[in-house]
Amino acid sequence: MATHARDRFVLTVDGRSVETAKTIPVRNPATGEVFAEAPAADAADLDRAVAAASRAFPGWRDTPVADRKAAIIKAADLIDGEADALAALFTREQGRPLPGARAEIAGAAMWLKATTMLDIPVDVTEDTATRRIEVHHVPLGVVCGIVPWNFPVLLAAWKIGPALMAGNTLVLKPSPYTPLTTLRIAELIRDCFPAGVLNVICGGDELGPLMTAHPGFAKISFTGSTATGRRVMESAARDLKRITLELGGNDAAIILPDVDVDAVAEQLFEGAFHNTAQVCVATKRLYIHADIYDKLRDRLHELVRETPIGDGAQQGNRYGPIQNEAQYRRVIALLDDARASGLTLLEGQAVPERGYFVPLTLVDNPPDDARVVVEEAFGPVLPLLKFTDIDDVVTRANDTEYGLAGAVWSGDVEQATAIAHRLDTGTVWINQNLQSTPFTPLAGAKQSGFGQENGLPGLLEFTRPKSIYIPKSAAAA
Ligand code: NAD
Fold first, then answer.
1. Distance from Cα 427 to the centre of ligand 1, integer Å
2. Alpha-carbon distance 312 to 135, whole Å?
3. 147 Cα nearest atom in ligand 1
4. How far is CA 4 from its chain centroid?
5. Cα dist. 69→53, 120, 307, 344 in Å?
6. List 246, 270, 376, 461, catalytic entry
7. Average pLDDT over residues 424-446
8. Number of neighbouring beta carbons within 10 Å of residue 213
9. What is the pLDDT of residues 347-380, one digit of tens each?
10. Is 192 noted as a catalytic residue in this protein?
11. Most ligand 1 atoms within 8 A of CB, residue of 153, 173, 175 to mutate
C-alpha cells in the first residue's frame, strides 16, 4: 500500500481510481470524530461502473476458470501481505480491537482462496445411446454486491470470490459507515483482474436504492437488515433480477441442564458478545434450563463485569464500541425500554464517555414479549430466559420472524441433535457457535434470508443453469 496516499480514498471503476466531487465523512466510533472523507458516488458514477463491468463481462466470462482462480488467489495474497496496515484502518473505521480486525483481513484472504478450491460442475442428467443432456452453470453478467458494516471486509470477500470465479463482473458497495478498508483493498487488488471486472463504489444513503433499481445488474447479492432486504427485493422485482439476501437474525441458544456450566460459560459469552454483539449469527436469546439458570447467570455476570471495553486501537480491550451512532441510539433505546418496563439489568464495566460505547448487559429472565427478546438488538444486550420443558423451549425459540441460526448445548449430543432438527433456522450448532466455513452454505430461513452464500450452493447462486441437449452422432444421422 506504499504506493497509495494514505489520506485519500477513491472509487475503483474500470480499473482506475476515481475521485468524486462530493464526499461522506467517516467517523471513528471509539471517539465519534470524523477522521477521513470517503468518495460519494452519484448516479453518473454508478452508470460508469456498470458500463465498465458490462464491457468487461464477455472477456472475463470467456477467461478460462483456472486463470480466474489464479487472479483471485493473487488478490488474496496481496490482501494478506497488507494485513497489518489494513487492520489498523479497519479498527479505526469499524471499532473492533486490532486482533479481531487482523483476523477479519486474514479471514477474507483465506475465504477468497478457499472459494477457488470449489469447482463449478457440469451436471449430466441423461447420457443414452441417442443423446446427452448437460446442465452447465453459466455466469449471470454484472452483479451488484451490497455489504453492511459489521464484517465489512469478510462479507465483501464472500461476494468478490464467488461472483468473479463464476465469471461475472462486479460492482461492490460497502456501507457508508465502513467504506475505507474495502476501498483500499480495491486499489490493492484491482490490477489482478482486467479493467472493469471488479469495481468498488461507495456513497450516501441514496446509492443503494439507485443500485438495486439499475437495469444493468443481472443480480443483487445483499447482506444487511431484514427491513432493507425487503426494499431490495421489491426493487429487484421490476427487472426480475436474481437476488440473494443474507439478513437479520434473533438467534436462540438452548442450554440443557446437563452442561458443565463452568466449561461452557465463556463460549456462550463470546457467542453472544463477539464484535460487541454486532454479528448476524450471534446468540441473541439465551434459554437456560431452570436447574442451572442461577449458576450460569451468575457466571455470565462475572464475565460481563470483568471484560474490558474500549478503543480497539488500545491493547487489552476485548470489545470495542457500537459501530455507528444510529445503531448506538437503537441499542440505548432498547435498554431504556427495558429499564422503563422494570426488567432487571445486570451490567458490565463502565465504558468510556466518548464514542459509541454501551456496557455489556444481561437481562435477567424478561417476559417473552419484551422488546429486548423480540427484536434483534445488534448490540451487547443479552436476554437470559428460563425454561423447564423441551417442547416449550423449542416453541419459544421458533417464535420469531427470523431463522438465521441457533445452538443447542448439552452433554448428550444425540438429544441436542434431535432438538437441532426442530429449530426453524438455516444453521444449528451443537456445543459450539459462530462457526462457518467456505464450504458450508449460510442460508437464512423465514425472514432471515433468501438464497444462500458459501459452499457450492452459494457459488451457484452467481450462475444460472443452461441445459444443452446434444444428439449422439447415430441419432443425428
Ligand atoms: P442495512 O440494511 O442498514 O445496510 C446494509 C447495506 O445496505 C449498506 O451498505 C447500506 O448502505 C445499504 N442500503 C441501505 N438502504 C438500502 C436500500 N434501500 N437499498 C439498497 N441498499 C441499501 O444493514 P446494516 O445496519 O448495515 O447491517 C446490520 C444488519 O445486517 C443486521 O440486521 C444483521 O443481522 C445483518 N447481517 C446479516 C448477515 C447475514 O449473513 N445474514 C451478515 C451480517 C449482517
1. 20
2. 49
3. 9
4. 28
5. 18, 12, 42, 53
6. 246
7. 97
8. 15
9. 999 999 999 999 999 999 999 999 999 999 999 9
10. no
11. 175
Dist. CA 375–CA 378, nearest whole Å:
9
Residue 386, helix vs strand vs coil:
strand
Q: Which long-range contacts (CB under 8 A, 24 or more apart) does 336-339 make?
A: 337/371, 337/372, 338/363, 338/366, 338/370, 338/371, 338/372, 338/381
Report the nearest atom of ligand 1 relative to the CA of 173: 9
Q: 280 catalytic, yes or no?
A: yes
Helices (H) and strands (E) in the chain, counts: 16, 20
Query: Please, how many CA atoms are within 13 Å of residue 346, restricted to the half-sphere of its CB?
Result: 19
- What domains appear along the chain, each with residue ranges and CATH number? 5-247+448-466 (3.40.605.10), 251-430 (3.40.309.10)
Beta-carbon contacts of 203 under 8 Å, excluding residues fewer than 6 positions away, are 20, 24, 39, 40, 41, 42, 45, 173, 176
DSSP 13-38: ETTEEE--SSEEEEEETTTTEEEEEE
Active-site pick, 280, 376, 453, 461: 280
Ligand 1 center to 8 CA (angstroms): 26
Pocket of ligand 1 (CB under 6 A): 146-151, 155, 173, 175-176, 208-209, 212, 223-225, 228, 231-232, 246-249, 280, 376, 378, 404, 442, 444, 449
- Checking if the pLDDT of 106 tops 60, the result is yes
pTM above 0.85, yes or no: yes
> Could you report the per-residue pLDDT of 191-248, keeping only the tens digit for each?
999 999 999 999 999 999 999 999 999 999 999 999 999 999 999 999 999 999 999 9
Give the dihedral of Cα atoms 17, 218, 246, 20; nearest 10 deg: 20
Could you give the CA distance from residue 20 to residue 11 in angstroms, rounded to a whole number?
8
- For cell 460497502, the residue is 174
Q: What is the pLDDT of residue 475?
A: 52
Tell me which residue has its CA closest to atom 6 in ligand 1.
148
pLDDT of the residue at 7: 74
